[in-house]
């Protein structure tokens, strides 16, 4: 979450970097780059120093930044800062002048202070930009070649690059996708692992989905938003997957697991040999019927669930109450296709098969 060598001119190198303890923050980090007189835009720089402090919340970080921004506008604060810089300098400093603050468009807020130092007859131009990205407070300090001007546009370019890297370290980013484990049979419990993510203070939401036998055309399963899911008979002949949304204040990212194998009954349950077939006139108000198809395993009980699908026969949703072998097409089915899940049951369990889609309802 800081500037990288690639953000700086050729020849730049990292002189030192470290994490350190600061009781006012969750974590603190600093990095120093040596830039032996190379140009950043029109400016020639010697050193660039980055500091990052991670606060507990974005509210706390925002309060600290706004307080600093207000202080920077006061001459007494700038004079005190100048004295502090002079006392801390390794080489005797004749004078230090801290100029008026300047607003910079970077991150969630940034303000720059120009600093002029006279050391052994030379004028050294320095700039400090204070910035905030969510709950991270950052500083970027640049030291120009003695006697040379550091242009605001070049300092701001470095500030924006640093803010972008800070943000990139905070936003939700998927590294490895979610994984589903468990036995894909009715009554069995599947578990979801959220995957591997980077980002700051992430929360996760889960949504289980039913997909076609190829693992595509997935639709959410109503109410299935936990990290576990008990496979239902309505999932027979379909596949399942989980979609995880990782989010924080900076954004959200959705990621889906690979689909499971096709949901099938336990050993000995019926298996389809001939798919069920829908017959009838595909028009609003007309009645369709479905046969049971052909089965091995001597089923004794059949159940039905009609589904409304898109024009391609995918993304199917159960039609509430449509659970007999006949269905009268409703006006809501216009431009949709229809399919039926037939569930066949014997003493060993249940198996399922889905009919081919009908033509689209005019």
Structure write-up:
- The protein is mainly β and 362 residues long.
- It has three domains: 164 residues, Protein Transport Mog1p, Chain A, CATH 3.40.1000; 84 residues, Immunoglobulin-like, CATH 2.60.40; 84 residues, Immunoglobulin-like.
- The protein is 13% helix and 43% strand.
- It contains three helices and 27 strands.
- Strands 1, 2, 3, 4, 5, 6, 7, 8 and 9 form a nine-stranded antiparallel sheet that branches.
- The longest helix is centred in the middle third of the chain and has 17 residues.
- It is rod-shaped, with a radius of gyration of 33 Å.
List keywords for this structure.
Immunoglobulin-like; 3 domains; 362 residues; 3 helices; rod-shaped; mainly beta; Protein Transport Mog1p, Chain A; 9-stranded antiparallel sheet
Q: Briefly note the structural class of the backbone.
A: mainly beta
Helix content estimate: 10-25%
Largest sheet: 9 strands, antiparallel
Query: Order of helices and strands, N to C?
Result: EEEEHHEEEEEHEEEEEEEEEEEEEEEEEE
What is the percentage of strand-forming residues?
Answer: 35-45%
Nearest-integer average pLDDT: 95
